[in-house]
Amino acid sequence: MHLADKANQYIDRMEPWVLEKDDTKKELVHSICTTSLNLFRILSIMLSPVLPELTNKIYNFLDIKTPLWKEMENLLLGKKIRTYEPLLMRIDSEKIKEIKEKSKEEIWTI
Fold it and tell me: What is the pTM of this model?
């Protein structure tokens, strides 16, 4: 999780969504996005044993075959990716509370 935290901090600090508005920063934005996608790929390889369905969606988005652990150091450069589609749905905290309350009321048979 340390790598995920560092990747998020990098993206937050670099603010490519702000830089993108300046035509003179296009190359920098491209570099930031490339770095971010490579970090995303590395994290997905690490998560693949526990989240295989999600990581398969990520590999599909990146338009790559399922990478091996030993290929983790290989960077995606000069590669086209597919149009982004949401990989996960955000869970509403109110919905979680509702499910917890409902589970308290139900009788479980095992």
Answer: 0.74
